[in-house]
Amino acid sequence: MSEIKRCKKCGTPLMVSKENTWNGNGVIAQTRDFEHRMIFYESDNIGALFTGIEHILGLPIEKIVVESKRREVKEYVEKMMSAITRKAVKHIGIGMMIDTLSRNGRAFGYGDISMVERRRKNDSDDFITMSVRNPHSILFFCGEVLGAWEAIDGRDHFVSYEEVEPGFYRVTCRVGEHPLELQGRLNFKTYPYKPGDIECERCGTCEVPLSVAKYTWDLEAGTIVHPDTRRRMAIFGPRGMEAILDDLEAELGETIPETVIEAQRLTVRMAMKDMKWIGDDQRYRRMMAFRGLGNIVMMKLGDKSLSVRMENACIDLMSVGMVQALFELMSGTDTSEYDYKISPDGVLDITIS
Ligand SMILES: [Zn+2]
Fold first, then answer.
1. How far away, in angstroms, is 210 Cα from ligand 1 center?
2. How far does residue 222's CA lie from ligand 1's centre (Å)?
């Protein structure tokens, strides 16, 4: 694998700081495609959220998560690479594609990714096996490999994984039908972003916010870890997460939004329980913005309630669960009620009481 270059001043991989822009309106956008949004988010919380949803529902959701991710990644790769480029990659550049996938994954916090074996003789026995140590989410990884591979190969595949040793997985894509065809259509919500004036100190060389640069980027292990809290982060697209939640709702019914909010409330409470909460709205504003979750333009803390208005919101249900958990931690209560409203132009109003 070729070397991943870092900023000489702050150490952030240039793949991260050049390809993503942290804007003053709470949006992290891909520098080359401002429509394509990213988030910088606690990756341990993703797995915990899925486990929490399964626990509340009493149903496995693994197949839906993988299929939803596959669909999103396949569409993304098809959009980024023309059919001609994909054909060329298929015939001459598979190794290059895998190298790019692996380098991207390491810089974005997806774990230590390697190619294990592949067979491609254009018959039904073809397969590709990748390994990953310490993935940000094994289900995301399965969907990502499957989606990217299908976009290049052009045939439908199914994926399986085995945990060879704790935290070390082998993921194999084989030619064949998807075990599940999702009912809903892939439907990304887009709206023009509202401007914002959130300021942050930035690296003088690569311009990444210092609150991002201070993380430890281990490019061998593919991890991004906070030096004090040891919380692990990953950079990924919120649309994929939103698509998964929409697909869960289409497949499993109307109780999914409340299930997601509740699972997220419990996950964030557990993850943040040791943090000290103070009534500093600018701090919460920066906290949401450096994760790319949107711009808090109003935050009102009453005796027994909290109202928050967020512009340019994304992963809305998760944000509701997160704000609810923050309120409970701030006010020292174990339970609360929530109400929320999402407008078509991306404004999320949340009231917790
Ligand atoms: Zn820098």
1. 8
2. 18
Q: Separation of 43 CA from ligand 1 center, angstroms?
A: 23
CA pair distance 135, 167, nearest whole angstrom:
7
- What angle (nearest 5°) sits at the alpha carbon of residue 216, between those of residues 5 and 80? 50
- For residue 4, what is the DSSP state? P
Calculate how far, in angstroms, residue 208's C-alpha sits from the geometric centre of ligand 1.
6
**pLDDT tens-digit series, residues 269-279:** 988 887 766 66
Mean pLDDT score of the chain? 90
Cα of 18 vs centre of ligand 1, distance in Å, is 10
The model carries a pTM of: 0.90
Residues 67-102 have pLDDT tens digits of: 999 998 888 888 777 787 777 777 767 777 778 778
Amino acid of residue 266 = L
Helix, strand, coil percentages, rounded to 5, for the chain: 40, 25, 35
Distance 13 CA to ligand 1 centre (A): 8
CB burial string 292-317: b at 16+ within 10 A, e below: bbbbbbebebeeeebbbbbbbbbbbb
